[in-house]
Amino acid sequence: MAALSSLPMLNMDSSYGVDKLTYEIFSILENKFLFGYGDPNSKISNPEKPHNLISSTNGGGGSSNGKVRILSIDGGGATDGLLAADSLSRLEASLREKSGNPNAAIADYFDVVAGSGAGGVLAAMLFTRGRDGGPLFTAEAALKFMAKNRRKIFRSSPAGFFRRVLMPAAGRAEKLFGKVFGELSLRDTLKSVLIPCYDLATGAPFLFSRADAFEMDGYDFKMRDVCAATSADPTTAGAFEMKSVDQRTKILAVDGGIAMNNPTAAAITHVLNNKQEFPLCNGVEDLLVVSLGNGESEFGAGDVTSSPATARLLRIAGEGASDLVDQAVSMAFGECRASNYIRIQGNGIIAKNYGGSEKAKMSNKKMDMLKETENMLSQKNVESVLFSGKRIVGSSNIEKIDLFASELVKEQERRKTSILPMVALKQMSPSPRTSSATTLSSLSSN
Fold first, then answer.
1. Which of 241, 312, 399, 428 is deepest in the core (most CB within 10 A)?
2. At what angle do helices 223-230 and 169-181 cross, to 10 degrees?
């Protein structure tokens, strides 16, 4: 009551308006608790100083110094990562067309990537350095990889009975990740990478972070283990036991979706509290954020004996949490959310009839699921509205992706003539720092 009583008394009949009042109340709350701002002089933490509005000169609100570009990818969802993979493939194609560079990669146009579960696997493939110095996978290659191997990675996907018994999903996934990443570790990533899991040993989230891998002993992990950890299904094969490269940190990991199925808020917090790597980023108006969902499951659909009830509940809980994060982040962006934040998610609900009848197995063939993701991308884009849930906007998901690709290319071109560096990622020289990633990681160290 004390905090609310300190707000100025307003005449509800005045031109101030209830909408502006509720917006300012939420701004005070989210600035203090969601992103941890504490500077009273910051324009984002002071409601007396409004967000910069969209301008025709820089394509959106924010500082003339530019924007930090964040990519966030949800856990598997109803499509086991295929919706996000398809979105990334279309985004990369649009970036190549708009930039005129046929070899442009997703990693070239983002400064930070956060991925959970299937999203973590995609993040690792697109942002881990290959032998030629570029990413291991193009977005199109990553889509093909996920479509071909999702049955090996995710227990929820159909597979023959004897195959599941003789070689559990966890074993197949670990072997697959070993072939893809070999001995590469978090230090071999191109940009700032954040991939969560849940550590059963400490009962706390653990965030694999490129910055922590460079700066602290015991926090560099093999990418094959990171992928196995963030996609480990606790309802079937159990937790995945892993150690850091130097053997100093031990983790008993399960699915990152349990910790944060939608890691967008974690990525934003990481950037805003990391002034060494992102020195010119002062608030959400200095960000360009792309958040990719993976569809929503239908609760109780299909043969109840074919999928453990616990697994279904975990999936539904993760998807619900993703929507809450989307709503909170959309509120945090306030007036600049239309230009600085995009959320791609399937509007419809997919019934996942995994296992069971032959008809159910046939309905989940690779091509059928890819067609389903194409339908989702052709749907009208859904936008979170301040204190009003969601609304369908005029543009489709594909059109929104194409529009945001233009903003990413503009920022890339702006940096070619910029004097001040928007991003200064850590390399091999460690230095003490406290960041959001470090805070989460420290909860799980041994």
1. 312
2. 150
